[in-house]
TrEMBL record:
Record keywords, A-Z: Transferase
Region named Disordered: 48-68
Statement: the UniProt record of this protein carries the keyword Ion transport: no
Domain of life: Bacteria
Biased composition (Basic and acidic residues): 51-62
Protein's UniProt name: GNAT family N-acetyltransferase
Keyword Ribonucleoprotein in record: no
Domain (N-acetyltransferase) ranges: 10-176
One term of GO molecular function: acyltransferase activity, transferring groups other than amino-acyl groups
InterPro entries for this protein: Acyl_CoA_acyltransferase (IPR016181), GNAT_dom (IPR000182)
Pfam families in alphabetical order: Acetyltransf_3
């Protein structure tokens, strides 16, 4: 039996209450957190446990899934990926991804992105994916280019973190571009 949620290195799955510790520890790397969105003050273990348990009890959204990236062997949480801003009228969606620092540059992010895009394109009938990447996040810029995303635009000085302003780079990929590269 095969699953659309399982690749060579990772499996995408729902959040489980026991995942709280992994995600709580990922928040310790301030630079990595800034690359994803914004830095928050530290949260308690009790809050992390409660929040993760509440999220684990929510029913998955078909068009805006919020998934854990886990190792295929061992089922260890290494990050998260989710679709958002899904627009059925135009067939577009955006997504965000975050991988814990100890798991960077192991192929987890690229495989998780391909798995999510395959689901959104071939199961949910979307026709275009978008991703926004901060201009200081060289690793994510390179990843998206390597996967075949096209740079479509730039919002100048739209993100402030660590005492500086960054541009937001908009990437896009159509179903045709995805199919040519990843099927």
């Amino acid at each position: 039996m095969t699953s659309v949620w399982v690749g060579e290195r990772v499996r995408l799955r729902a959040k489980e209450p026991d995942d709280w510790e992994a995600f709580h520890s990922f928040e310790e790397d301030s630079d990595a957190v800034r690359n994803g969105w914004r830095l928050h003050p530290p949260s308690s273990a009790a809050y992390a446990k409660k929040r993760t348990a509440e999220e684990a009890e929510q029913r998955p959204d078909l068009d805006d899934p919020d998934l854990v990236i886990a190792t295929r062997d061992g089922n260890v949480p290494v990050g998260s990926i989710g679709a958002h801003h899904s627009d059925r009228d135009h067939g577009t969606f955006a997504y965000g991804i975050s991988v814990g620092t100890p798991y960077h540059r192991k192929g987890y992010a690229s495989e998780a992105i391909v798995l999510l895009l395959r689901y959104m394109f071939f199961e949910r009938r979307f026709q275009k994916a978008e991703a926004w990447v901060y201009s200081s996040n060289d690793a994510s810029l390179a990843l998206h280019r390597r996967l075949g995303f096209v740079e479509e635009g730039r919002r100048r000085r739209s993100h402030y973190a660590n005492g500086r302003y960054d541009d937001e780079v908009l990437f896009g990929m159509t179903i045709e571009e995805f199919t040519a590269l990843h099927t």
